[in-house]
Amino acid sequence: QVQLVESGGGSVQAGGSLRLSCAGSGFTGRTNSMGWFRQAPGKEREGVAAIFTGGVSTRYADSVKGRFTISQDTAKNTVYLQMTSLKPEDTAVYYCAAAYGRAIYYGQLLQSNKYNYWGQGTQVTVSS
């Protein structure tokens, strides 16, 4: 059974940092890409950052460029999101997702409908 388990969320003051982790298990092969998405209350889920598995290509939402960094450890099937210079508007539930067994192209990396496995989410709260 495929599972994605996020950890590392919490509360932090504006300007602070957090590192999210997402451990994948149950995959019988390699995922095509993994990404981080977030959903704030009353808003739609948005793509934050994504990476091709085993590659170097990454994609970021404009709102987090220069502040967030996605990385991976393919041996552990784990993806990370290092978040720095956090702002109150970064407050949301953050979800890890994997595109497994389906093609995904660079321009689609931040499209949630291209991902077929999701974690349960972890809350990130940034106070001013």
Give me the oligomer status: single chain
Q: Give the distance, in angstroms, between the N- and C-terminal Cα atoms.
A: 40 Å
**How much helix, percentage-wise, in residues?**
under 10%
Beta content comes to over 45%
Q: What does it look like?
A:
With 128 residues, the chain is mainly β. It is built from no helices and eleven strands. It has strands spanning 3-7, 10-13, 18-25, 33-39, 46-52, 58-60, 68-73, 78-83, 92-99, 117-118, 122-127. Strands 2, 4, 5, 6, 9, 10 and 11 form a seven-stranded mixed β-sheet that branches. The chain has a four-stranded antiparallel β-sheet with strand order 1-3-8-7, with no helix packed on it. A hairpin with a 5-residue loop joins strand 5 (46-52) and strand 6 (58-60). The protein is globular and about 45 Å long.
